[in-house]
Amino acid sequence: MAEALYEPYAEVLSVAQSNKDDLEALFDPEQGFAPRMRKICRDQILAYEETGEYSDELELMRLEENTWALLQAVMPARKTEQSVLNSPRDLLQQNPYTPTSTIAQAIMGASPLLTELVVIREWLQETAPAPSHPEATTGYWKFTKHSVMQALRTGAGSRDGLVKEMDPDAVNREDGRSLAADDASYEKNLAQALYGMVRAGRLDEAIELCRRAHQPWRAVSIRGSLFFHWKAISNENDFEDEEDADMWSGNRNRKLWKSSCTRAALNPALPDYDRVLYAALAPSPQTSLILKSACRTWEDHLWAQVSIMCEEKEMMELLRLGGSFWEGGLAAVEKGVRSVSQETVEDEEEQWEKEVHQALDGLKSVHVEDGPAADHPFHFSQLNIILDRSSYLLDIFANGLQNGSYDVVAYEYAPMCRFFAHLCLYLKMIDIPVPPNSAVIILEHYLQVLEAAGQRDLIAMYAGALGENAINRYAEFLVSLELASDPGERRLALTRARDHGLDQDSVATATAEMSMNKAFEILPPLKGPLPSVIGLQPPPPDPETFLLRSIEWTIFSETTYDRALEQANHILRYFLASGRIQLAQKLLSLLPVEISSIAEPEEQATEYLHYRQFFNIWENLERVTECQALEVPKMNRETRNSWLADYKLLIDQARELITKLLTSEWLVSDVETAGVDARRRALIRIRQIYVPELIIRLHFTLFNSRHHFPDNLNLALKLSNIVADSRYKLYEDFNNQSGRRLGDYLEAPPAPSSTYRHFMMSKHSKLRLALLRLSLTFSLIATSRAQAWQEDPPSAAATKACQILNKTLPGLVFFPGAANYTSDNFHYAATSTQNSTCTVEPLTNEDVSAILKIVGQEDVRSPFAVKGGGHTSNVGHSSTTGVMISLVKFDQITANDPSTTVTLGPAATWDQVYAKLEPLNLTVVGGRIPGVGVGGLILGGGYSWFTDQYGLALDNVVSYDLVLPNGTFVRVTDETEPDLSFALKGGYHNFGIVTSFTVKSHPMNGIWGGTLSFSANDSELVFSAVEQFSANNTDPKAVLTLTYNNGVMGPSLVANVVYDGPVEQPPAVFEEILNLPLTGNTAKARTLTDFTLGEFQFLVVPQTGFTQHVIPTLHYTVPIMRTMKIQVDAAVAKAIAEERSIATVGMNCEPYINDFAHSVDSAYPHSPSRPVTPGNPLSFYNDVADREYFEQLIWEMSEAIHAVVIQEGQGLPDDIHYPNYALADTPVELIYGENLPRLREIKERVDPTDVMGLSRGFKI
């Protein structure tokens, strides 16, 4: 409940700060600062009391309330000039009959300390606990009286032990005799109640209680404490009428009264409760022990000490003055007022002040029976406020904060920080000196309390009180928001700085700078090998996102655009030099257009324009690629001409833009001279990454388009001349010893000839190399990325098969050096790629038939592979050193009439399929990532975003066009070829080559979907939400996958969510995960194509190394996902420690409702009774030589996770493994299970000579 106080305190502070020069307003008894703080405490106390809980907090709040009351009591007197009164000496000299009340008031006015002590006593009385009241009585000692009267009537004498008389002194006079038990108990309760009323300063109430108790003598004793007062003889002129002037009150013989009270308090014959009451009425050093014996709390001790000092000071001064008729009679008047020098008066006052401070100082260690101890922070604070040692108090608390003496999780920590922060600010407002360092420390810690309590709206107000540190401290708070706040919240937080007197531009600049520094402390430095920009670009980890969003602080206002320019350049340098081009693009998209028009400083403006120039080129190249992908075989003439015009225009624009960049001093000149300037080194690094990339991409674009535009081949050669031109020194950009050279990009053979080696030794070898390789090698590219593999020489069987094929199928067979050979062997991952002896691109089923007959004939028996999309992670599954059968021409996508089925070629990719079917409002069950081929996915199973609705891809196949191993063509359906239909559903190329699939189509009207990004620090929250989704989701249209990655760029945690249907708002099924703290959210209503390309385009980029496996899992529990994260992190740490070429290790969770609910009879066993989902560990790496290392790493990681899956009851040791993810050495028994015997029987029947055994994969 204490959290509710932050805002009310801030409101009071805000009002007070507006009145900081008006002491009268600050000290107003109702609306002043301290009274309003006290009221807040009082309201909170009432709230605590209503609940009956929070006993510790309740006690603390009462203490704070009392402390604010103390401040309101003492501070106005200290800061307000008091009116000058007549001195007591002057009053008595003028009128020796001046009443003692007037003299006492003058004594108090002459001593500021006495005045303050009286105020403190009044505060202690006001804050004292409410006194108890004894039960009402019907008469004086009624039980004792009854006994006495009965004895008188009967003459039998009084009862044993009871008094015989009824006067108040009877108990003390008659030895051993007492009152009746009930009367004695009442007397004790009455005396204790009267003491409580005296302690609370309620004398009138005490007198009234005495009257009701029929004990007027007690009332007289209490009234005797009042000084004598008579306006008519006191030189007071403020009485309103004569009658009022003649009235007097108080005790004319107070001196005698006090002496009597003192004797009574010291009389051991009296009951203790009576002695305490008399000691309280007439406190003095003599009665102090009696009075203090009744003190239970620290406040009681303080009240007793203050009361003694006030009473003694008054009496001492009256005695020293003399000359008062009411104190000494006529004799005193005749003697007159004593003459004492001013010096003596001042010395005595100084000595008395020392005694007071010494006495009060002793209370810091006094023993306390009830309530908080003397050393409680609030008691310590109250004592030092009374002693006017506020600076000492603040120093002590600040030192404790700085030294870590206080437990920050203790319940009193936050309230104490809050109190002291406001005490500092209050003292400043009323112009009481505050130690500046201590104030800063206290306010700093209170800001931390506010941050921990989520009170972001209040930070600016308190940070503004830090003086010189205010801007940096508020900037630190803004930095601490990290990724939890959206731009709107950040802008509002920045605006609050201005509202509380801080310079908004300075805060924005400081925040941006601190944010960048914080990010750069975590991010890896710009050194080491140059990054690849064609590799996988994983989602940005939190530090990169934090760096990216640091720009927001300086683009909120035009007045900080100049700082934003410099900041943007710095961030762009880092992202580009790190190979994080998508992040650099995103940064540019955030920047306002006005930044481009900033001209000063010229160096920064030029650098920024150079980045704009580069991204204009990069976006143009992307449009070239997109346009190229629009080409389809069956365009009509008009459409084709229009496409050619667009394609040529984009290529020409790209060439012009790139040529302009290459022939200008882009970013920096003289690349060979790096210098010591970090900025220059970063710019050189950027050139060495992107200049070669632009040259190569342009060359490929020109060369690949030569069939459409023959002149582009000449333009490619002209590009080589530009590279070779010594004026531009572009060869320097290829000459980074720690990074890539031109040969690395072209993947030249590792053992160059002696002639080539001679070229390398000459000074300008890089220029010649660029010219030679760009003009010849690219155009006649005879090598591929697979040359990193050191394969055995082609076998004689493969060579023979290629020779026969070349004669049988002229124009369809390609050898090393041909572009088609390169593209036919190309795979998504270099680790899946091999150099074949030749490649063949069949056009028809008859061509496929001829190929199978040739490779399988008895005198050939050549190894071969069948490739559709080339996305497998296992080497040899669609690659070979023998004959590569590329189905690239079988890429048809045809919607059949009626629109219930679609016919697909195995080389079509799923993103192409979705784009083709979307205008027809149709879709099919297919892959989730662009670039994945149709054939491999369907033949191996085929998970989809629609699996919960319609099953796997193989469950949706209506028929297959199949060329059997003997060359026979057959159309396979469940009805015509039930065994083959069964075998092809998960059986891959074990039974022939499939040249087309006819699959069921389904309605598609759009989806809602996207990527949710989280901080890896919130993994437990995310895992819990995914566990709930995995266990409880019942909506088959809702799909969620979770991916945790870690690697050289740090951890990332993302979920992909999809809902099938044209919904605009987030579906309720995702509410829990959407309510978690997000660092990114791209989910929206969109087309399936937009989702596929928009969210996963980065996965299209070819990889060097890619390895994955599968962990069959029923449901994903938090322990399972936690283990996945632990294993991923451990695998990354291991690979880094062992200096392997790791990029990323990750784990995908795919929590379907029942992925096998729509299963059909198939080779891949997927019964609805055992709906395991394919948990997917994977890794990407940068050296093909590390393939076996990462295969072992992923296998070990999978085994560790699988053990927890089994332990959690979500898996079995022999659960079926999903073949499209499984490692190559996975036993076929774990893939086909009990279906294996039937599959082998079918295989023996359709392929008795084992032609398909000449290819690799999961062989049965």
Automatic annotation (TrEMBL):
Record's keyword annotation contains Hydrolase: no
Principal cellular location given in the protein's record: nucleus
Every FAD-binding PCMH-type domain range: 832-1004
Gene Ontology BP terms: mRNA export from nucleus; post-transcriptional tethering of RNA polymerase II gene DNA at nuclear periphery; protein import into nucleus
Localisation: Nucleus, Nuclear pore complex
InterPro entries in the cross-refs: BBE, FAD-bd_PCMH, FAD-bd_PCMH-like_sf, FAD-bd_PCMH_sub1, FAD-bd_PCMH_sub2, Nup84/Nup107, Oxid_FAD_bind_N
Gene3D superfamilies for this protein: 1.10.3450.20, 1.20.190.50, 3.30.465.10, 3.40.462.20, Uridine Diphospho-n-acetylenolpyruvylglucosamine Reductase, domain 2
Keyword annotations: mRNA transport, Nuclear pore complex, Nucleus, Protein transport, Translocation, Transport
Keyword Protein biosynthesis: no
A single MF term (Gene Ontology): FAD binding
GO cellular component annotations of the record: nuclear pore outer ring
Alphabetical list of Pfam families matching this protein: BBE, FAD_binding_4, Nup84_Nup100
Family: Belongs to the oxygen-dependent FAD-linked oxidoreductase family.
Name under which the protein is recorded: FAD-binding PCMH-type domain-containing protein
Organism the protein comes from: Tetrapyrgos nigripes
